[in-house]
Each structure stands twice: as C-alpha cells, then as structure tokens.
C-alpha cells in the first residue's frame, strides 16, 4: 500500500514541477529536430549559423503572396501541462518584412480529439522586429486552456501580404516554452503528500 501511495505522489510531482517544454529550442542539433514546418510553395525553413547564442538559429523565408510560412513546436507537454498552468514564452528574433510582410507568434492549447480549447496571438498582433542585423528578445506570459490533453503548440509565422514583392524573412533563436504549475495542481500535490503522511502513522 505504501509503495502505491509513493508511486501516486511521484506521478503527481511529475505534473506539478516547473519545466521547459520545448525540444531543440536553440536549434543546436543543427537541424529542425523538434520543429514542424508548414510551408506554402516556394517558402523554405532551415537552420542558419546567424544565431543569437550558440552555433545555430532557425530561419524562415517566404515570398509567396498572401501566405503564411510556419515553424511550430507542436503538441508539446502532453501529460505534463495542466489546465490553467502559467506558460512563459520567450524567444529572440529578427528579420526583414517588406510590402505587408509580418511576424506573428501564436499559442494554442490542444484538446482531446483535435482542435483547440484556447488560442492566443502573443502580443495581440504582429511582432515588430528589427532588421536582420540585430536580434531582439521577447517574452510573453499566458495560461493553458481548459483542455490540454494533447499539450500545447507555439507557432511562429512569417506571413506575407497580397502586394507584389511582399516578403517575410524570419530568424529565431533561444525559444522557450516554460510551464509553471497552476496553484490548483500544486495544491493537489500538497494534499497527496498529506494523505500519505496520515496513512504512514
């Protein structure tokens, strides 16, 4: 019985510890491991040595009119992220966006059976970055939605406008999706520990 209680507490602790969710957020594998590109015809996604820190960064090039080229950290934190958890998202970015090209970062809570229980455009709209010469660091705090059975997704979008010559070139590095347990899940861990202590007496 004691061993079953201990297993239950360890399982609960696994979901109540703060933790990093991204895979290869700094692109230091030298490829797009952990990332899922979504590219219109003619767009590309690669790694580059033009990094903010370390040896590599990710880059997306899109000159297809009125389209979105994506890099995603998709369905991360399954079985770890809980409803209402605080999520801190940080990354460094730079780029070149002309004739209506923009950079947008989106965050989704992925629910059971497909679809999302919550979605958010980080910052409320396009993120303005400098020219390709300098990285800027951005940080956003949000919360997981009511159903995160399939984890969460961070989507970085290099979108173009309809105008001829619209181009979006994005460089991104040091991407972090960091989960902080909600007070409710932390309280559940505390209650589990208290119950186990009572049973041991």
What would a concise description of this structure say?
By secondary structure, the chain is α+β, with helices and mostly antiparallel strands. It has helices spanning 2-16, 183-200; strands spanning 19-20, 36-38, 44-48, 57-62, 68-76, 86-98, 102-110, 116-121, 136-143, 152-159, 167-180.
Class by helix and strand content?
alpha+beta
Count of separate DSSP helical elements: 2
Calculate the terminal CA-CA distance, rounded to whole Å.
Answer: 13 Å
Strand content: 35-45%
- Give the helix level as a range of percent: 10-25%
Radius of gyration: 20 Å
Shape: globular
Seen as an oligomer or otherwise, the chain set is single chain
Q: Compute the average pLDDT.
A: 87
Major sheet size, sense and barrel closure: 6 strands, antiparallel
Poorly predicted segments: 1-14, 188-201
Number of strands: 11
Describe this structure in words.
The protein contains two helices and eleven strands; from the N terminus they run αβββββββββββα. The chain is α+β, with helices and mostly antiparallel strands and 201 residues long. Strands 1, 3, 4, 6, 9 and 11 form a six-stranded antiparallel β-sheet that branches. Strands 2-5-10-7-8 form a five-stranded antiparallel β-sheet, with no helix packed on it. Helix 1 runs antiparallel to helix 2.
Which characteristics define this entry?
single chain; 201 residues; alpha+beta; 6-stranded antiparallel beta sheet; 5-stranded antiparallel beta sheet; 16% helix; 41% strand; disordered N terminus; disordered C terminus
């Amino acid at each position: 019985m004691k061993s079953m209680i201990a297993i239950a507490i360890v399982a609960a602790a696994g979901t109540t510890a703060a933790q990093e969710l991204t895979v290869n957020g700094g692109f230091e594998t030298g490829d797009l491991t952990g990332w899922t590109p979504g590219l219109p015809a003619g767009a590309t996604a690669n790694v580059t040595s033009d990094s903010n820190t370390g040896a590599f960064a990710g880059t997306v090039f899109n000159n297809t009119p009125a389209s979105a080229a994506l890099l995603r950290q998709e369905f991360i934190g399954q079985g770890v992220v809980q409803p209402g958890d605080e999520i801190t998202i940080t990354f460094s970015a730079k780029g070149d966006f002309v004739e209506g090209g923009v950079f947008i970062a989106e965050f989704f809570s992925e629910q059971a059976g497909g679809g999302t229980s919550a979605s958010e455009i980080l910052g409320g709209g396009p993120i303005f970055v400098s020219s390709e010469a300098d990285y800027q660091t951005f940080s956003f705090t949000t919360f997981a939605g009511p159903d995160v059975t399939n984890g969460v997704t961070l989507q970085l979008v290099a979108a173009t406008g309809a105008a001829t010559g619209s181009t979006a070139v994005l460089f991104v590095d040091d991407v972090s999706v960091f989960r902080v347990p909600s007070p409710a899940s932390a309280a559940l861990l505390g209650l589990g520990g208290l119950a186990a202590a009572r049973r041991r007496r």
